């Protein structure tokens, strides 16, 4: 018989609440990143039987997905796992394509001219799938986003604790019998409620001590660090993060260098998706037709990237002293 676990938090419900808040903060950042990542790309002309949301979801969590034609459903997209040998380009030769209540084994379409008979070729064409890669390494996005979310969670909770320390920069030491009493009093204090207590029999002054923790205010520095982590995450996703609150960021060379890095990160996600579209159109004879599928960066994001230069110029016009100081340079 297993020994029942002890509730180590039974005498400290405030600690239990902090654990819940820690988890919620971390989960909140993960969800924010996921919503951003799933909204970057727009698939154009996908057949109505396909689902763009499920496709990007599969790429986000699995790093790869498949496009195929099924006898029952028509054109569909599924999650997948490799289950074959490796071809000359280091790609699996076949995949287990699956979804809810669906599974099929498909051979990878590569366009290679294999030395097989025409009948065999026709048979394979009906059993092939197109591989969609999240990036050239077929790595999911979620792992990196969880790391960024963890760093943001640490920064945010550190700032929360530091701000709370400014409200109550003391540590109170009381007898264990008076602990619940002081917790109830502090609950009113933390809830921004004034409290008055006048029972000298319950509050023993001889056993009550307060120690000043002297916690320095560092929340502003922590929030600056948090912004840097957030911007690094957006750069990783290929999203322009314009920062005009600091003069140093208006230097043209730095802006151009950052834009190049953002573009390369974006292309690392976009190029494999474009290749999948090209192969899908080739295999099913859609190239050059009005049914040809494609993928692109969503127009709103594209406009933001293109308008960055004008935004910086407008900021410089409103702050002409930057030109005089030589910090900003005209493009």
Give a verbal description of the structure.
With 331 residues, the chain is α+β, with helices and mostly antiparallel strands. The protein has a domain at 170-212. 47% of the residues lie in helices and 15% in strands. It has 10 helices and 9 strands. The strands form 3 sheets. Strands 2-3-4-5-6 form a 5-stranded mixed β-barrel. Strand 5, helix 3 (118-125) and strand 6 form a beta-alpha-beta unit. The protein is elongated. Residues 3-9, 191-198 and 325-331 have low confidence and may be disordered.
Q: How do the strands of the widest beta sheet line up side by side?
A: 2-3-4-5-6
Overall morphology:
elongated
Give the CA-CA distance, first to last residue: 75 Å
Backbone CA Rg: 29 Å
Which sequence of SSEs, written as H and E, runs from N to C? HEHEEEEHEHEHEHHEHHH
Structural class: alpha+beta
Low-confidence stretches: 3-9, 191-198, 325-331
What count of helical segments does DSSP give?
Answer: 10
Tally of DSSP β-strands: 9
What level of helicity do the residues show? 40-55%
Strand residue percentage: 15-25%
Mean of pLDDT: 79
Largest sheet: 5 strands, mixed, barrel
